[in-house]
Amino acid sequence: MCGCEWDDATGITDGFWKHGYDGEDFLVFDLKSTRWISPSPQGVSAAQKWNDIKHLDYFTNNYLTEQCPAWLKEYVSYGRSTLERTVAPEVSLLQKDPSSPVVCHVTGFFPRAVTVTWQKNGEDHYDDVEPGNTVPNVDGTFQTTSRLTVKDWQTEDYTCVVQHKSLEKDIVKRVIEEEIRRNQDIETRGPSMGVIIGCVVGVLLFVLAVVGVMVWKKRGAGYGKTNTSDTGTVNSATGSVNSDTGSVNSDTGSVNSDEPLVKA
């Protein structure tokens, strides 16, 4: 493993170059002495051989103190707009029911560092406080919680204080009924039943309209012009129908055809 560090406030740089074996450091480059050393007895002879290689110590030292920090500074400048952006947190007081602990929920903030504390009557309060872990959100911001377990929050003045880099002044939430959100107070964020019913009715009407048009077109297709081809003729005087395939004689009421077309 090799890499470098850079403190943009002080300008101090540092670096490391290590080789491991079987899960432990085997050879390590010491920047102060610019020589390879071995934390284990088995690597001492290897370290001596590497120190005897001409210019290897110079190359390693130059990489860790010059090249690597230069690249690091360049890459940081590329991502500065993202790395140095600030997003203010949203703070809510949550409670499952009136007898449950009060949770100070802080979310949507960036960067990660945040301070959440409790105060009682204007003084810092640490008893019955359970801080939560800071975890990432799907959008790249972070969230955290702090739980206060007390029974006298309705008679004493408790506040949740949030400090963050993005804030000009601290966010202070008082533990009062008007600020607390409980399960039964949170409205369902999905569409209302009226909207759902309206959508269903609209879809059904659309389907019925499509079916009606198809039925109308199908019925209209049954009425066409009479076939007046040479394969059959109608004699109005004799009431007979003569064709190459069959004939009807109105006088005798007989049907003559090798293959009758219609049988009624």
UniProtKB/TrEMBL annotation:
InterPro entries for this protein: Ig-like_dom, Ig-like_dom_sf, Ig-like_fold, Ig/MHC_CS, Ig_C1-set, MHC_class-I_related, MHC_I-like_Ag-recog, MHC_I-like_Ag-recog_sf
Keywords, alphabetical: Glycoprotein, Immunoglobulin domain, Membrane, Transmembrane, Transmembrane helix
GO biological process, any: immune response
Residues covered by the Ig-like domain: 89-172
Assigned GO CC terms: external side of plasma membrane; extracellular space
SUPFAM superfamilies: Immunoglobulin (SSF48726), MHC antigen-recognition domain (SSF54452)
Disordered: annotated span: 224-264
Listed Pfam families: C1-set (PF07654), MHC_I (PF00129)
Transmembrane segments: 193-216
Polar residues: compositionally biased ranges: 225-257
Protein name, per record: Ig-like domain-containing protein
Species of origin: Aldrovandia affinis
